[in-house]
Amino acid sequence: MIFKILDFLIIINAIQGVIFALTILFSKYFKNTTNIYLGISMLIGVLINAQYFMMKYDWYSHFPKLAIFEDIEFVLLFPVTLLFYYLKFLNPSFKLKAKHKLLYLPFCISVILNLFVGGHAHFKIYTIDNLTWVPTFYAIEYYASILLNIVILIVVYMLLFRNKSAIKILVHHNLKWIKLFYYFHIVLIFTWISLEILGKLYPYEFTFILWLVLTTFFYWVGYIGIFKFRLAQNRYEIRKVIDKEIKTEYKKPSKSKSSISDEDNKYLQEVKNILEHEKIYRNPKLSRQDIAEKLGISVGYLSQVINNNSEKSFSEYINYYRVEDVKKMITNKAFDKYSILSIGLEAGYNSKSAFYTGFKKETGLTPSEYKKRHLS
Question: Where are the chain's structural domains?
C-alpha cells in the first residue's frame, strides 16, 4: 500500500515537472534563453523518471517496442543542458559556440547507435549479423554517462568557486541561489551513482523513494530559480538602462552649521566624487575601510569627516545615496517594467528587508508608496 502511494506521488511529481517545464518554455513571463535551458533540463529529468517507472512496472515486456525509449541515455544530455543554464545565468550575454555544441556529441552518438540496435532488436526492421560489440558499447555508454556528469560538476565548481574572472559574472550579483542549486545538483548526481552501485550489489529496490524525494526538491529549487533568475536578469537590464541614462546631479546632504576645515572639505569632496561618479555605493559589501583606503586616510577620520558635514553616520550617508538612486529609477518610466526589489538590489542593498528598512528610514515611505505619491 505504501509503495503504491509513493508511486502515485511520483506520477504526480512527473506531471508537476512537465507543467512546470512547459510554463518555463512557453510562458511570456518566464520565457528567455536562460530559462529555456532550465525548462529543457526539467523535461529531461521527467523523462529519466519515466524510464525508471516504465522499467519498474515491466512495461517493456508488455509493449516491446517501447524498449527503444529505455535505450536512450538521457543522463548524457541532462548535465549538458544544466551546464548551459549555469553559464547563461552567470553571463546573460553567453552564446553557444561550436566547442560547446560538441558536448551534445556523446548523447547524439548514443541515440544513433541505440536506434540502430533497436531497429534490429525491437522492431525487426533488419538483421544485424554481428552483435558482439553491443555489450562493449553499453559498458562504454554507462561509464561515459557517469564520467560526463562528474566532469561537468567539476567545470561548474571551477566557474562558481575558483575562476570567476573566466566569465562575465553580473556585478554585485548574489551567487547564493546558484550555489544552492549546484549543491543540489551534486546530491542528485551522486545519489544516482550510488544507487547504480547499490543496484549491482543488492537486490533490494528503494530507488523510487529517493527519486521521489530528489525530484520534489529539484522542482522546488527550479521554481525558486525562476524567481532568482528573473531578479538577476532585471538587474542586468537595469544596469544597461542606467548606462544610457543622462546623469543628473544628486541632491547633496545638508551641511551642518559648524565650520569645516579645508582638509575636511578636501576629503569630503573626494568622498562625494567617488560616490556620485564611481557609484561604489551600489556594492552591497561596501565598507568604511574600502573608502578610507581609496582616500588614504584612517577609518576613524573618514567617519569624522562625514559626521561633521552631514550629521549622518557612515551607514546613513551611504543609505542616502542608495535611496536617491532608487528614487530616480522608480520614478523614471524607463524602469517601469522592472520590479522595485530588483531596483533596490541594484542600488546596493543586499536584501529585501534591508532595502525597505533603509528606504523608509530616509523617506518615511515604502518604495511603492513613494512611487505612487510621486506619480500622483
Answer: 2-242, 248-375
Q: Are 156 and 84 spatial neighbours (Cβ–Cβ below 8 Å)?
A: no
The owner of cell 549555469 is 86
- To the nearest 10°, report the CA torsion of 61, 63, 64, 67: -90
Express each pLDDT in 78-94 by its tens digit. 999 999 988 888 887 78
Q: Which CA distances in Å does 339 have to 275, 326, 333? A: 24, 12, 12
Distance CA 53, CA 43 (A): 15
Segment 327-345, tens digit of pLDDT: 999 998 888 888 898 899 8
Q: State the architecture of 248-375 in CATH terms.
A: Orthogonal Bundle (1.10)
Q: Which CATH architecture has domain 2-242?
A: Up-down Bundle (1.20)
Amino acid residing at 362: E
**pLDDT higher than threshold 80 for residue 166:** no
Q: What is the DSSP letter of 246?
A: P
**Residues sharing a CB contact under 8 Å with residue 241, sequence separation 6 or more, in sequence order:** 334, 335
Give kind and range of the element (H or E) at residue 210: helix 207-244
What separation in angstroms does the CA of 332 have from each of 246, 249, 318, 329, 343?
Answer: 12, 15, 22, 5, 11
